User: Fold histidine kinase from Streptomyces collinus.
Amino acid sequence: MSGRTAPCDPQEIGALFLFEKLTPEQLGRLCAEGRVERFEPGPVYAEGDPATCFYVMLEGTVVLYRRVGGDDVEVTRTSQRGVYAGSMQAYLGDRVRQVYNNSMRVTEPTRFFVLPADTFAGIMQEWFPMAVHLLEGLFFGSKSAQRAIGQRERLLALGSLSAGLTHELNNPAAAAVRATATLRERVGKMRHKLAVIAQGSYSPEVMANLIDIQERTAERVAKAPALSPLEASDREDTVTDWLDDQGIPEGWRIAPTFVQAGLDVDWLDQVKAAVDEDILPSAIGWLNYTVETELLMDEINDSTARISHLVDAAKQYSQLDRAPFRHADVHELLDSTLLMLSGKIGKRIKVVKDYDRTLPEIPAYPAELNQVWTNLIDNAVAAMSSAGGEGTLTVRTASDHDRLLVEFRDTGVGIPAEDRGRIFDPFFTTKPVGEGTGLGLDISWRIVVNKHHGNIQVESEPGDTRFQVLLPLTAVEEESA
Assistant:
């Protein structure tokens, strides 16, 4: 938006704090190469447009905005003479993308001293070469450090995730190996017991009864009810007494297996009625091996299913087999991240999921949102570790007007009030030296705000800290680009 041009007075601009140290010749050059413009209430420039001018306010009121989701969020409002905005990094030239980083409006008739970006860059390099070198070093050095430490932080996060995943995979894998070795032993004993039975002079009807009982026993194992420890103990005592009454050796060892499989005294009475008395001990022993093999196969199935689930969760977390940008279910992303971090969370921290499953899928970069969840969960765990290592992490999803809310609530030590305004700044951290890079929340902010056009906000007091991520439910045009 162009304003009305007015004469430039060197004395007027020389009274501004930005130019007060300049010589009369320098002020004269500024007036000759720049201009004074008067803008009526409304927009001056828009975020993302090419940065063509450097603006210094002479009088009036300016408001700076940043685009967040579908809304303009006010960043600064001031009437102080001499405040400046626009192409402030023009001296960097084409080494950075020269666009406006915010939008500027005026709320009343306002006058600006306006300097074209190329002129501003040339004057800076001619009048203040040392300052330009220092500013360039600060800008690019900060970017380089941020990039290097960001890579280091990602490697540390990857190492932590790998350790947690390895730990989670080791348990079911070890259980499957143990169960397989035991199963081989039980099958061998089962074959031996069957050979002993077969060598006896038993009628085909008796053998058919044994086979039928074996089949029905296997079916019963699959439908075994879950018992409380007290119920299981009572049944084991009852089954042990029944086995002892029948003269079955080591009934105390067999009883727990039968109870775990859902076999009770009524079932054993049916077995006793189906076979001759002299074959009952062998039949009970054979059924014991049958039950053990079924239980071991269930254990192997559970272990391999757990491994498969962990591998699926790892794929979901990394999104290696998915499109970078797509519609995603945030609950799947949250679950995979929590599973990947379960080793780091530990058993002393209780995780509560308060999900609104009616929420729709949202357009997103899933792998990058998983990085956001990782950073926020990691910070919550660290806060609770500082508070004694115990606590509750609550992950909540809900609808917030036209946005989706993901909230991470922890019962840690909280964030001091004086630090809350800085937690999203690069390199700022409240963790001890060496334990934090200060980039986790900065990266999360850029992913949510800049890439997804959402927002992150925080509320904190000791024992109740909440990080809230707000994501748009519909795609923004820039996202597909």
Notes: Confidence is low (pLDDT under 50) at residues 432-438, 477-481.
